[in-house]
Amino acid sequence: MTQRGLLGVLLACGVALAGAAELRVPQHPGASTTIPLPRDLGEGIRMFRAGIASPEFNAATCASFLNAIYDNLWRAAPGHFDLAAAKRDAGALVRAIFEAKLDLRRQLARLEGAGPVPRDCVTAMRNTMRASLFMSEYLAEHFVPAAREARVFAGGEPSLLLDPQFGPALALQSGDVLLSRGDAFVSGAIARLGDVDGNFSHVALVYVDPGSREAFTIEAHIEIGSVVAPLEKYLTDGKSRAVVFRHPDAALAAEAARLIAERVRKASAGAGNIPYDFGMVMDGPRADAELFCSEVASVGYALASGGGLQLPRYRTVLRMKNDAFLKAIGIAAEASFAPSDLEVETRLALVAEWRNLGKTQRSRMTDAVITHLYWAMDERGYRLRNTTGDALKRDFAYTTRQLPLFGALLEERFPRNMPRRTLGMMLALDRTAEAMLARLEQANAEQVRRTGIAMTGAQMQAFLRALPDAVFRDSFRPAGQ
After folding, report:
1. How buried is 442 (Cβ within 10 angstroms: 0-12 exposed, 13-18 middle, 19+ buried)?
2. Helix or strand or coil: residue 451?
3. Domains of the chain
4. pTM confidence score
5. For the chain, N or C: smaller number of CB within 10 Å?
6. Residue 470 gets which letter from DSSP?
């Protein structure tokens, strides 16, 4: 891989922490101080950390500062950064990016202590955190190619990054909140469903039995509802990313896990698992009669705190110009607890961040496909539609899952409370996204063959938008056609 090629990857992947040709540190709205960004990537990260630690970084200026970094990246001149130094210092740079994220969370907590934080500031922080994760992955993928760990939370840096105050080794505790990302299209759809894109699609709560010391996760799955399962299953089911968050009160955290585990087990032993909440509704007298994944943690901590701790502090707004997709998959809430909301939840500490570097590139490609689908729905009025084959599968699954003979066979994929329309939409999403991903992977492989570098996020979006409509017309086309 050429240095120029690697530079293109780092500059165009949509990453922010390295900055751009310059950093602008606002002193107040409408004013800024210009800080030239050195060619050394490490120095750029140090300058970013100094910028957010300065007195000028406050609730009024944070959005403009972070957005300037995020946006100016795309205007940075090729050749600006010293890639030889980046390759030499890759491990230290990955660590520095993680520490910068910890710094940014601390600054958010500081701003919250002074009063309400504007939503545009929180959004800018989320965008920066998402970009920092991608930058870290790009550095690790291209400069530390041997780092591949499939077991969740296994290995050392750059696969596993741990806040030293919780180290030197990661030890999960009862009440820890686990944030993760799979590589299925439904994972990408959940991660990007809302007003701010996210990196994660699932939340689980750790429960350690106080008697046996056996560790479990408490989770709500689309397929089977809420369950208490051995932690080992979580650690070995093929995730691409996972993060550990921890409440500072260990007793409260343990009680949260115990109470929600007790509720889930009681339901499973009786009428059956608590059904999955497709509406993602968190408010109202029967809001927790059904649970979606993030709601497991939210309800657990609300029970343990007597309602004093309501997660998350910042809910994701669930809104699209073309809301047919949201309605079709059953979402009823206007705002809810999306998994990535935890990234800006400062009442929980970020303990550790892990990724399977053998899967992270595909995860970003899946993100690109889902982002393109949502863009086409919002900006061009496109809708997902069932083909004749999809409709037959949908109707067969919907009917036979109600019968005892077939219900158990289909339950893992098609839960009994999944509406027919939702089931059909999932099939259409899989079909369309799979076809797009296949073409994107082919184009990426060709670029790697020619140039030695993978496609950037911007290149992926440009490629997907150039695909002819006829390719997907049977399952994805404008309304009315």
Report:
1. exposed
2. helix
3. 3-143 (no CATH), 160-355 (3.90.1720.10), 360-478 (no CATH)
4. 0.87
5. C
6. G
